[in-house]
Write a structure and sequence with these properties.
Radius of gyration: 19 Å
Strand order of the largest sheet: 6-7-8-3-9-10
Distance between the termini: 41 Å
Shape: globular
Largest sheet: 6 strands, mixed
Number of domains: 2
Oligomer: single chain
CATH topology of the largest domain: Rossmann fold
Number of helices: 10
CATH class of the largest domain: Alpha Beta
Structural class: alpha/beta
Length: 279
């Protein structure tokens, strides 16, 4: 579905990514992990077509992303940033309806079908009760859910397909640190929401995160980035190992299955070389 092949990129003369290859298959659930400055956000911007690689290629369904119009790309792919800052005090419904812009013609206003799509997206993210609220009055977790709802409204192609029910199965959701500023309760809420969108709604998801346990609990495959290169990639259980965490972050950690959680969990022990860290 979405692939980056031997991608190189840099800002001015400084290289950021060097020979990075990533593949996200249809209905895939992929996490990108790496320390600060490893190139995670830059990679997401390249995959979303917001930046163009200096070398290599980024393709969506075999077509160069750079050759697609912004509207065509937006109908297939939506980006959820780490934080959303607005110049005006929009309502929640206005925010979600903004997701419909790639489906509208010049000077065309949203119609009843767009309103129905927005309400379906709010229902899917369990934010329907917030429809009339000013966005800036919401909590951090509520805001993130509403932005995901806007992304779902952007990806809904039922109007093109002549359908009446939500149609997100062909869409790709890119999320940049979706839980970075949230407390533990809201982190679990976002984790459950993304898992539901992938399981029940068949949305393809790629998420960039610092949270090793979020990646362990959510992602089916991982890509580890260090210094702009891929350190390892593959199924989560094969990639999320103490040796890879040590190489990626310089941290000793225990990685083990957790019966109650139902997935791997990561317990950081200490910096490599610290006296308190275990060998």
């Amino acid at each position: 579905m979405l692939t980056a092949d031997d991608v190189h990129f840099g800002y001015d003369a400084a290289p950021v990514l060097a020979g990075v290859s990533v593949s996200v298959g249809r209905q895939g659930l992929v996490g990108v992990l790496g320390p600060n400055g490893s190139g995670k956000t830059t990679l997401l911007r390249l995959l979303a077509g917001r930046l163009r690689p200096r070398a290599g290629s980024v393709r969506l369904d075999g077509r160069e992303v750079s050759g697609l119009s912004r509207a065509a790309l937006a109908r297939r792919m939506a980006v959820v940033p780490q934080e959303t800052h607005l110049a005006f005090d929009y309502s929640v419904m206005e925010i979600v309806l903004m997701g419909r812009y790639p489906h509208l013609g010049p000077f065309e206003l949203e119609g009843p079908r767009d309103l129905a799509i927005a309400r379906d997206a709010l229902a899917a993210t369990r934010t329907a009760a917030l429809e009339a609220r000013p966005f800036n009055t919401l909590s951090g977790g509520e805001k993130q859910r509403v932005i995901i709802a806007s992304a779902l409204a952007q990806l809904d192609r039922r109007a093109e397909n002549g359908g009446t029910r939500a149609d997100w199965g062909d869409g790709l959701l890119l999320l940049d640190e979706p839980t970075a500023s949230l407390d533990i309760g809201y982190q679990l809420d976002i984790l459950a929401l993304l898992r539901q969108l992938w399981t029940d709604r068949h949305v393809t998801i790629l998420v960039s995160t610092h949270d090793l346990n979020l990646a362990a609990g959510l992602c089916r495959d991982l890509v580890l980035l260090k210094d702009g290169r891929v350190l390892a990639s593959g199924p989560t259980a094969a990639v999320l190992t103490p040796a890879h965490i040590r190489a990626l972050y310089g941290v000793e950690a225990e990685v083990r299955p957790h019966a109650a959680a139902g997935h791997l969990t990561v317990v950081p022990i200490g910096r490599v070389g610290d006296e308190g860290a275990r060998p």
